[in-house]
Amino acid sequence: MNVGDIVAERSVHLTRESLVRYAGASGDFNPIHYRDDVAARVGLPGVLAHGMLTMGLAVQTIVPWLGDAGRILEYGVRFTRPVVVDPETGADVAVVAKVGAVDDESARIDLTVTCAEATVLGKAQVRIRL
How far apart are CA 109 and CA 73, in angstroms? Predict the structure, then answer.
């Protein structure tokens, strides 16, 4: 494993149904995640994917490569832009996982997470046990 190596990548298509399912699983029924009128009323560009959904699908990208999610030691992100989920076309979130640093016992995996060519999670980093 070398700094700069891409270890995993994928694209996830989100739909309004994805948001409803996540709301049910998480208990987050904030109407900005499913009602256009509420999102518009509070000044949002549209219905937004849950931030934790975006964060979760991003880190899940590396789990098949790791072979064991228990090797994840730390994970953090900054929410930089919302993922707007169109009622007809949905939204595609792309994730690229690249080795950012390696030491004797762990490595830092940097995640680049984009939607509509905009970075939606900043400083998305996962520290893993080697």
Answer: 11
Tokens linked to 100: 């950012």
Per-residue pLDDT reduced to its tens digit, 59-115: 999 999 999 999 999 999 999 999 999 999 999 999 999 999 999 999 999 999 999
Structure token digits, residue 35: 């009602």
Question: What is the CB neighbour count within 10 angstroms for residue 70?
Answer: 9
**21-62 pLDDT per residue, tens:** 999 999 999 999 999 999 999 999 999 999 999 999 999 999
Which amino acid, residue 21? R
Taking the model in full, what pTM does it have? 0.94
Which residues have a Cβ under 8 Å from the Cβ of 52 and sit 6 or more positions away? 26, 28
User: What would the DSSP string read from start to end of 30-85?
Assistant: -GGGT-HHHHHHTT-SS-B--HHHHHHHHHHTTHHHHS-GGGEEEEEEEE-S--B-
